[in-house]
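Homework-ish question, so no full write-ups if that breaks the rules, but can someone show me the predicted structure for this set?
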Amino acid sequence: MRKKEGDKQAAIIEAAIKVFAQLGFHGAKIYHIADNAGIATGTVYLYFSSKESILENIFESAWKQLFKSMETIINNTSLGSIEKFDFIINAVFDYFNSNPPLAMVFVNEQHRLVQKDNQQFTGFYNKTIGLIERYLREGILDKAFDSSIDPVIYSNFIFGGLRYLLLQWAHDQKSYPLDMIRKCVKNLVLSGIVGKNLTNSVAFNDVAF
Amino acid sequence: MRKKEGDKQAAIIEAAIKVFAQLGFHGAKIYHIADNAGIATGTVYLYFSSKESILENIFESAWKQLFKSMETIINNTSLGSIEKFDFIINAVFDYFNSNPPLAMVFVNEQHRLVQKDNQQFTGFYNKTIGLIERYLREGILDKAFDSSIDPVIYSNFIFGGLRYLLLQWAHDQKSYPLDMIRKCVKNLVLSGIVGKNLTNSVAFNDVAF
DNA sequence: TTATTTTATGAATGATGATTCATTTATCAT
DNA sequence: ATGATAAATGAATCATCATTCATAAAATAA
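A: Not a homework solution, just the prediction itself:
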């Protein structure tokens, strides 16, 4: 029998991320992806059942990773609420750091999966948003966060702000240096989340920005 | 000569907003839009040169309106920085309030225009983001906002957070009541933007949430 | 009424591009 | 080597619409 030459599945994913980022899902043609991966058009279909399924695969692994690292941070009982936020932001940016096109696809193409009500995607998405909500609720119980915040609305705002900043960074890394973004997000969100009475507490100043 | 029966241009726009919101730009077929507007397929092309141009028209008028109302607020010298923020948030939500599908299109389809580098769109978008940046800078000069904030990054985060919350609201208005969203956004952003030393100042508490 | 012009129609056109499949190529076991 | 099987190819297929256009309908003016 003939052996597979190299990891074509990985090559297709990598190529698709680039092409989806540049041209958008519909602008991206299968032959663009195949060209980019250095294979023939038909070969794509030996590894994926459809163009759609390539996108699904990309989102699935992104969410799996993001969810896992967030879960680890949030379940770590030795970290305080504010430290956890710090770590979460770092985890998100670290994940996309070496792959700006992935960030573009992640932000720009999500609505397609929402529209198709893709279960794989919806599952991870809901779990992750739920995790952030739980984190906010626990922070309130711990008196780290203001008791008046609404975990559902706050988590969506933060998630949305992060997404958008990630996209801007992916478009132009020079104008939006990652370290600056991290610092700003932490500052903006924390100073809003942290109860005003705790603004100058030791816990707050302990975190190194 | 024959007279036009009713405002078909407006009917097309209205129908397109609904269909784009539900199916996305590519899922939306011209005959869907025509059906929804109560006209024949070909008639669409008497009013718009292409499907793309319908989307452009929608974005152009949305940005024109949003820009105008923000400009009025920000240039109003009788308002303080914090009052202005209050008004800006209200203006955005008031604009989309009666039209959830418009909010969905506005959030979900923006990247298409960015990708095509649509000049009409880019012009208004840049002007509006620039306006928000100027507003933040002036707030810093007025000592209303913390001097350490980065106007470019902060304005993008806020814009992104707003967009995302708007989308959630459009999907499910019951779970995300508009008044709750307004209140939360104002709280989160202001408590982050306002210099810590001013947290309990009169100006801050004067604003009715 | 009838000619003229504008508006509207929806079936036909034509381009596009995802997917398929008949064919070829490489590898291995015998 | 030779047959058998897995991998890979890329031209052909086929369905899907955006757009066009020949035709009809409505309104007005003469």
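Now go work out the reasoning yourself. Hint: The first helix of chain B runs from residue 8 to 27.
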